[in-house]
């Protein structure tokens, strides 16, 4: 029986998977969720023998039920091909006593490639299936990584345009250059004078602007999203949790059926939510460990049951996690309140109106699969340095947040359960802070005394230290021409979209 998708906020209209992928966001502002969770259709002891593509198919066919076998396989084979620099696509490596799932071997050296390599194919296939003859306009807010991965995925894809908003001054220099040098003729990149939450809220407001949608419809445009609010982004992410489990069995670290933990550096909550979906499919996941940086809104939520964005927004060395409104958390809230859209809508209205909400004791009891930890800047830098000194392995700042959380959880839980750290970005994406961490013996002091070196000088030094070749994604922007220089205020985002299309 096909899985149907409905809104988390009460719109009862049913959508097929392909229709939900096209639409992106529900008309009532809610997010699409499946009406049930399918079970993984392959036995656990078979997982070690599956390639990444085969694993992705086994997961995605259970959720995207109105795509044919041929359509899904075509999307998967076109997505996970030579654009990844490792034949495993998502290799699992052991360094010291920690396991790292490397999700940064794609075109833009960040985990967003894992889903955004396939989303354009899922979307264009869905458009053909549903006989959509309009041009799809992808609107995306990014805290750094989604932007370039979406631009790379949709660049020059027929029938699509993509507009990316990012917080000006709130991403790393490498991240910004990756975006503003994008050559795709159907792409537009806009810096926003504000933070990521401003960008994300602005995009949601544009999606919910009925007058604008009607105006653009007359000119043959329809909106969709490449953010993880799109179910076509979320479902492909489930696959790498299943794949990692298979690799843990294959390496002899666990036996089929044995539970493991996943430690996920988390800002917008989509990545860790995909792990929860994997658990709901039957993957033996013990705990999902939510690792936060100093913007510890999720850490506080899991510790107190109160989600409160009314706090200082802190710019950290892990900018992709500098987020105070975690959009995908809504999908979890919907589930723990008994899939009651009215109750969920009330909490989301409280967040919009008051900047906070508090869940009931019964709902908090449904969060037993999660726990939260956070790492301050000094811990992040010390974690990078210590791992390098002990193993020679270099991780980025976001992965370091998770590695620090992993240590804390192991010490607190003491249960001996093995864990996999989800490594979300290449260290080359955040070279400045990674090099400061490696070269400093003072941890946080390195932040206060930044070295006066060009980002690309540091890239070269990191290559020597790590003995890892500089990724093409970095080399190609070293001398690339800046093609996107638009900057706007938050209040002007809507007009920026309108003027770029009409």
Describe it for me?
By secondary structure, this protein is α/β, with parallel strands linked by helices. Helix content is 44%, strand content 15%. The strands form four sheets. Strands 3-4-14-9-10-13 form a six-stranded mixed beta sheet, with helices on both faces. A five-stranded parallel beta sheet has the order 8-5-6-7-15, with helices on both faces. Strand 3 and strand 4 form a beta hairpin. Helix 16 packs across helix 18.
Task: Compute the number of helices.
Answer: 22
The number of E-state strands comes to: 15
Class by alpha and beta content: alpha/beta
Overall pLDDT level? 94
How far apart the termini lie comes to: 42 Å
What would the keywords be for this entry?
22 helices; 502 residues; five-stranded parallel β-sheet; six-stranded mixed β-sheet; alpha/beta; globular
Reconstruct the topology from this structure.
Blueprint: E1 5-7, H1 17-23, E2 32-34, H2 52-63, H3 69-79, E3 92-95, E4 98-102, H4 113-116, H5 119-129, E5 135-141, H6 145-154, E6 160-167, H7 173-180, E7 187-193, H8 196-207, H9 210-218, E8 221-225, H10 231-250, E9 260-265, H11 270-280, E10 285-292, H12 297-304, E11 306-308, H13 329-336, H14 341-354, E12 356-358, H15 361-365, E13 370-374, H16 377-391, H17 397-413, E14 419-423, H18 431-439, H19 445-448, H20 455-466, H21 472-475, E15 486-489, H22 493-501
Parallel strand pairs: 4-14, 5-6, 5-8, 6-7, 7-15, 9-10, 9-14, 10-13
Antiparallel strand pairs: 1-2, 3-4, 11-12
Helix pairs in contact: 1-5, 2-3, 2-10, 3-5, 10-11, 16-17, 16-18, 18-20
